[in-house]
Amino acid sequence: MRAIATNLAGRRGASLLFSGIGFSLTQGEALVITGPNGAGKSTLLRVIAGLLDADSGHFALHGEDELALPVSEHAHYLGHRNAMKRELKVSENLEFWQRFQASETAEGLSVDAAIEAVGLTGVAHLPFGYLSAGQQRRIALARLLVSARPLWLLDEPTAALDKASDKLFADLVRAHLVQGGMAIAATHQPLGLEQVQTLELSGVHSTVADGQEAWA
Ligand SMILES: Nc1ncnc2c1ncn2[C@@H]1O[C@H](COP(=O)(O)OP(=O)(O)OP(=O)(O)O)[C@@H](O)[C@H]1O
């Protein structure tokens, strides 16, 4: 499987935020998008997720046979918000996501195993709204585990996490990559991952640094 962005441009209102963005990821690879507030990181992620139209260019996922795969069925999108109902139990929230994002080809973890994987054993019965901000973010990360999807799209995934949880998050992403997954993350904080491509949005124009195969 490959994720390929070609000459992507994104606009908000009258402002062209980025243009000429291109990168290519294969299984086991990650891309980290950096840049100052307002540079367009969230906008780019939403374009990649198919939640916003690109101004030009396109993003596509290709399977082994090179056929295009629907991004909406093969990606997890974790935005700034956790997308959980405060009044529902943690387990009920995760069970909803497990059903809603079930994959025909691969199974995720059980709800209990996912809660354990983010280090919060014992909170399944609590309303999501009872948890601290960092605990809520960790349960939002558990959502990535209860159904298996190859591409993780992560917007500020470590916001509100403490140092120990930062490491836990990096371990989760590393395990996902080792299993053949891909990840694209917008962040202000280093994610503690090695071997990532980086894409810097400057807010004026975009440049790509380092990346094995990234270009802009
Ligand atoms: N719904 C919207 N309508 C109009 N403009 C918007 C909308 N959402 C975002 N913008 C503008 O688009 C620009 C880029 O926003 P975006 O959220 O993509 O930036 P970002 O790089 O993710 O920022 P941050 O680091 O603060 O999260 C900002 O100037 C913002 O005001």
UniProtKB/TrEMBL annotation:
Statement: the UniProt record of this protein carries the keyword DNA-binding: no
Family, as annotated: Belongs to the ABC transporter superfamily.
Signal peptide: none
One Pfam assignment: ABC_tran
Domain ABC transporter: 1-216
Enzyme Commission no: 3.6.3.41
Name of this protein: Heme ABC exporter, ATP-binding protein CcmA
GO biological process, one term: cytochrome complex assembly
Organism: Hoeflea phototrophica (strain DSM 17068 / NCIMB 14078 / DFL-43)
Keyword Transport carried by entry: yes
Domain of life of the organism encoding this protein: Bacteria
Assigned keywords, A-Z: ATP-binding, Cytochrome c-type biogenesis, Hydrolase, Membrane, Nucleotide-binding, Translocase, Transport
InterPro entries with a match to the protein in the record: AAA+_ATPase (IPR003593), ABC_transporter-like_ATP-bd (IPR003439), ABC_transporter-like_CS (IPR017871), ABC_transptr_haem_export_CcmA (IPR005895), P-loop_NTPase (IPR027417)
Top-rank EC class of the record's enzyme: hydrolase
